[in-house]
Known about the structure:
By secondary structure, the protein is of the alpha+beta class.
Amino acid sequence: MAIMSEESFGPVLGIMPVRDDEEAIRLMNDSKYGLTAAIFTRDIAAAERIGDRLETGTVFANRADYLDPGLAWTGVKETGRGASLSVLGYDALTRPKSFHLKHV
């Protein structure tokens, strides 16, 4: 289904049964996009293990409704370059300037 492999914007949720975590990870990574993944589980350690293997810039566990300004918002693959939010995002929006001054 296109909804499972194309980038969508809006309140869209694709649900698909899988045999196990390995199949879920393989299918989730089978996309040219990689902005966000949401994992819903009672086992937070499993969410961290699965999330670590996902080709995505952001992983949510038991939510997909909040961006923490202290964490980078970034994507991988064809989802974009760079980062927004966090120190990384703010650094990308600034341009440093150096002054080398010698008092005479």
